[in-house]
Predict the 3D structure of the following.
Amino acid sequence: MRDLVIVRNPDPDSRLPYLIRLPLGDDGLILRAGGTWPREKAIYCYPAAANEWPDEPEVVEQIPVRSCVRRGAAIDLVLDRARENRSQIVFTRARGRDAIFWQTARVRKQARPNVTTPTAHASGITALPIVVDSGERYGYRFPRQQVEIVKRRLACGDYAVEVAGTLHAAVERKSLADLVSSLLNTRLKYQLTELATLPHATVVIEDRYSQVFKLEHVRPAVVADGIAELQVAFPTVPIVFCETRQLAEEWTYRFLAAAYAAADHPAQEEPAVPEPTSAEVRAWARGQGMDVTERGRLRPDFRQAYRRPHP
């Protein structure tokens, strides 16, 4: 058995429509796969048991293999054809879980743009004090920047800077998958509602905008329309696509630094009306017959309802 065999997955409930069998070892290695070749992006794979291989498979492709060798955490695969012949199966971890990706050198280069981020201090700040939300898992560490990180619970956003003890600017970080799920379940709208109360806020996406139109399990137009509608509804909270995690981290650092530096010379404005306390909002909501909890974090729609009669 020296062929790469790709068949259709007979399991109708699986999100991975193909099974691939690699000529590795005595019995071969079987994986569920999201595609037949990583042409534009890496293909997510998942281990499959030998009994998942169908007795009468619907073969999609069967290509002779010149080389299939495991080297550490990767399998180098070379097919016996002129084009699209070299690829790699990578065993890694994503968001704390084991993951397998099938990729080519071109896809890997696209995913990691050939840039080096600068080490110069943003806005001339020697040590930027950044507050990181304590609920943020696998968060940015800003290893190339001079920052002072403090972890505690934030009212909104994942990364923020404070001025005179008050939240001044915040960044909400999201992967493309997080963006889609929070958009569809309306959680993103509530997050933008809270961010819009700050002088400076933004949402940063660790991916390209073009990837929205390559989504497979949701209509891309629904996501694109949802993003556009939120930008119209919340024009002071831009949604920024930063291509990679590294670039999103760099953009977050420089955005927060710029907001922090600008706070040293605020424009002349009318005195701001102080925000109502949670107790004031709860008391008002109960008087209006609303079902509000005794303690804990208030839902954003309660504060929105309070502001209508109290501009």
User: Anything to note?
Assistant: The chain has a mean pLDDT of 87. The helical segments are 105-111, 176-184, 187-195, 220-233, 245-262, 278-287, 300-307.
